[in-house]
Design goal:
The protein is α/β, with parallel strands linked by helices and 200 residues long. The chain has a single domain, classed as 3-Layer(aba) Sandwich (Rossmann fold), CATH 3.40.50.300. 44% of the residues lie in helices and 20% in strands. A six-stranded mixed β-sheet has the order 2-3-1-4-5-6, with helices on both faces. Strand 2 and strand 3 form a beta hairpin.
Length: 200
């Protein structure tokens, strides 16, 4: 059996989390991802129910400060944990994450909390990372996105990561959530990036 994009339906179950500073769009991205997945991929209600059940063993410890959603992409079944910035350390300590998405606003400098969250993720043994450069729709100067991306890559290098191997997706979670097709594509690009990194 194949998916609507022609790929075999041999999906892995993967658990991810969003990390990053308050106000940079972690929760908006988590909600937009679920909505975009429902629109772009054929959803299997039974599979989604199994994802929720699989998350049950982790959920009690995370319940005081975290929410989770479940969705299906072309290659993976995802449990997606989202938490407040101040509880990222708790999330990383209680959830066995296959990967994380660092959400950074393209507006302004990279916040110190992004550095702290990367350090915590690496300390928790999370090795698969992607970056969502959010709020690109609000940039007056198109070149500013490139400057913001370079600032993130500098942070990654400073943390001892190979910045050329960490994918950075430019997008707008808020506009994607509102149904803007152009920006929905950025969330789908992120999902396909995660599929490629986490499916193996």
């Amino acid at each position: 059996m194949t998916g609507e994009r022609g790929r075999p339906r041999h999906r892995k179950h993967r658990t991810i989390g969003t990390i990053g500073h308050r106000g940079h769009g972690k929760t908006t991205l988590a909600v937009a991802a679920g909505k975009a997945a429902a629109k772009a991929y054929r959803q299997d209600a039974g599979a989604v129910e199994r994802i929720v059940e699989a998350a049950g063993s982790t959920r009690p410890a995370l319940a005081p400060y975290s929410t989770h959603s479940a969705y299906t992409t072309a290659d993976c079944h995802y449990t997606h944990f989202d938490t407040e910035a101040r509880h990222v350390g708790d999330l990383l300590g209680h959830a066995s994450l296959d990967g994380v998405v660092l959400v950074v606003s393209a507006l302004g400098a990279v916040p110190p909390q992004a550095r702290d969250h990367l350090r915590l993720a690496r300390g928790a043994g999370v090795r698969r990372l992607a970056v969502f450069l959010n709020k690109c729709d609000a940039l007056a100067d198109p070149e500013a996105a490139g400057e913001a991306e370079e600032a993130v890559r500098a942070l990654l290098r400073d943390q001892g990561l190979d910045d050329e191997r960490v994918p950075i997706v430019r997008g707008s979670a808020l506009r994607a959530l509102a149904g803007d097709v152009f920006w929905e594509a950025s969330v789908i690009e992120l999902m396909e990036t995660l599929d490629a990194r986490l499916h193996a």
